[in-house]
Amino acid sequence: MDMTQTADAPPPSPPTPPNGAEGGVEKRPALRPGDRIFLGFSGGSGILLLVVMAAIAGFLTYRAVNAISQDHGNFFTTFEWNADSTPPVFGIAVLAFGTVVSSIIAMAIAVPVSLGIALFITHYAHRRVAAPLAYLVDLLAAVPSIVYGLWGALFLVPHMNGLDLWLDKYFGWTYVFDQSSPGSAARSLFTVSILLAIMIVPIITNVSREVFRQVPRMHEEAALALGATRWEVIRLSVLPFARSGVISASMLGLGRALGETMAVATVLSSSSVLSLHLLDPQGGTFAQNIAAHFGEATDFGRDALIAGGLVLFVITLIVNGAARLIIARRKEYSGVDA
After folding, report:
1. Which of 111, 245, 287, 324 could form a disulfide with 211 if both were Cys (CB 3.0 to 4.6 A apart)?
2. Does the pLDDT value for residue 169 go beyond 70?
3. 31 in a domain, yes or no?
4. How far is residue 291's CA from residue 240's CA, in Å, rounded to a whole number?
5. What are the CA-CA distances from residue 260 to residues 145, 200, 241 (Å)?
6. 299 in a domain, yes or no?
7. 187: CATH
8. Helix (H, G, I), strand (E, B), or coil: what is residue 172?
9. Helix, strand, coil percentages, rounded to 5, for the chain
């Protein structure tokens, strides 16, 4: 071979770009009319949702500022709620305490139970048992709130006295379960918390069950092939994969607990007393307070109730925002996109 000719040969020409590309950059194919319609519809829906949220926030803020500006008490620390008095005095201390505490206790009870039910349906129960049980959980999720409230007032409250006395006897030293008036009707934050836990168990269970079903079967089979027990498969393969989904399910349940109205209003005896004695009839929640006073309130009283609704709205946004941050931080460990 002639080395001179090889050295003088022109360099190879660059590869020809594919059809429809200029400068080596491939163009995206033109969207079909149906794709354009769907893209516009989905984008418009997202924008509409933001507009609705902004409108709600603006309305609540406008009405709340009108009430807070005339409040003669401290809106955040006053225990009394008498917006229609002269001068008006109302505060959210008792309502914020009741809403947050009852929801936290409900979550502490409901989340472990819900995960246990979801794992039993997806990984332990026989198909003949799992299908009816899953159907029953779906039915419980569809029961209206007022039905839960009537059941709680007529059945749960009378049967809570024994549990309250037992907690007072053996755990009264904690102060939290010290019942100052034993034998009174169990219309307390603790009873409301149990009722809320029963209400949110179906929601958390349904979402968690679907998330557990999305775990790749190969992950579980690989763990079993290495000699893992069924619990080790769940702990090492199922729960890490489903962590973000479980957090989302829990936040859905927490949102239901924070905003529940009729069930709480039916069971709880609202008062302006703020106490850590969870077994005493005292306290209240934002939603229950709005439902109890909105019908007979004056224009200013309704503005005051809307101010409480604004606080509940902000609490819900904070909770959901915190959940999204937790899911984003756990995303790389979960195996799925949040």
Report:
1. 245
2. yes
3. no
4. 41
5. 8, 10, 31
6. yes
7. 1.10.3720.10
8. helix
9. 70, 0, 30
Neighbouring CB atoms inside 10 A of 96's CB total 19
DSSP track, 303-319:
HHHHHHHHHHHHHHHHH
For residue 112, the number of C-alpha atoms closer than 13 Å in the C-beta half-sphere is 5
Among 301, 330, 207, 199, residue whose Cα is nearest residue 258: 199
Which residues partner with 81 through β-bridges? 90
Residue 157: other Cβ atoms inside 10 A:
21
Shortest CA distance to 145 belongs to which of 203, 92, 232? 203
Which uninterrupted H or E stretch holds 44? helix 33-68
**HEC string of 7-23?**
HHCCCCCCCCCCCCCEC
Asked whether the predicted pLDDT for residue 265 surpasses 90, the reply is no
* pLDDT tens, position by position, 85-105: 778 888 888 899 999 999 999
Query: In this structure, how many other beta carbons lie within 10 angstroms of the beta carbon of residue 274?
Result: 16
Distance from C-alpha of 241 to C-alpha of 212, rounded to nearest angstrom: 8
Distances (CA, A) of 79 to 40, 196, 271: 50, 24, 9
Rg of the Cα atoms in the chain: 28
Which one-letter DSSP state was computed for residue 32?
P
Query: What tokens does 51 get?
Result: 């507009």
Those residues with Cβ within 8 angstroms of residue 188's Cβ, 6 or more apart along the chain or in another chain: 164, 268, 278, 279, 280, 281, 282, 283
Has residue 4 been placed in a domain?
no
Residue 281 preceded by cis peptide, ω within 30: no
What is the Cα–Cα distance from 297 to 307, expressed in whole angstroms?
14
Q: pLDDT for 127-136, tens place per residue? A: 889 899 999 9
Q: What are the structure tokens assigned to 26, written together?
A: 């491939």
Asked if the model's pLDDT at residue 249 lies above 80, the reply is yes
What domain count does the chain have? 1
What is the distance between the alpha carbons of residues 300 and 108, in angstroms, rounded to a whole number? Answer: 37
Is 269 part of any domain?
yes
Q: Which domain holds residue 165?
A: 52-334
